[in-house]
Design goal:
Elements lengths: L5 E4 L1 H18 L1 H21 L8 H5 L5 E5 L3 E8 L2 E9 L4 H9 L3
Parallel strand pairs: 1-4
Antiparallel strand pairs: 2-3, 3-4
Length: 111
């Protein structure tokens, strides 16, 4: 049996989730937006804990020198993360239409 993975969310990933909730508030309302983000977070954790190496590498980030994997969530979001030994580092959670490079620059400013 494989030892369990530890999932860590970078500050940028937390900010992404906060941004998603803020955007969803305008269409769903505050309570439903909070539930949406909670469900999204649960889905991310469940899938990555089970088998983080199952998901493909992100080609765009590989071209920039990042060893990043990408989990595509059925609701149209993608999670960019890295795996080192038994630690999963979640870097960004983005809508699939969001530009990855722009998001990296934006969240890098908040470091």
């Amino acid at each position: 049996m494989k030892p369990p993975y530890v999932i860590q969310f970078a500050r940028a990933a937390e900010m992404c989730l906060s941004d998603i909730e803020s955007l969803k508030i305008t269409t769903l309302g505050a309570e439903a937006a909070a539930h949406f983000v909670d469900a999204l977070l649960d889905d991310i954790v469940e899938h990555l804990e089970n088998d983080p190496l199952r998901y493909r590498q992100n080609i765009q980030l590989a071209e920039l020198g990042f060893d990043a994997r990408e989990f595509l969530e059925p609701n149209g979001y993608r999670t960019l993360y890295g795996v080192k030994e038994q630690v999963i580092d979640v870097w960004l959670v983005l809508y699939t239409r969001q530009d990855i490079e722009k998001a990296l620059w934006r969240y890098m400013m908040f470091r």
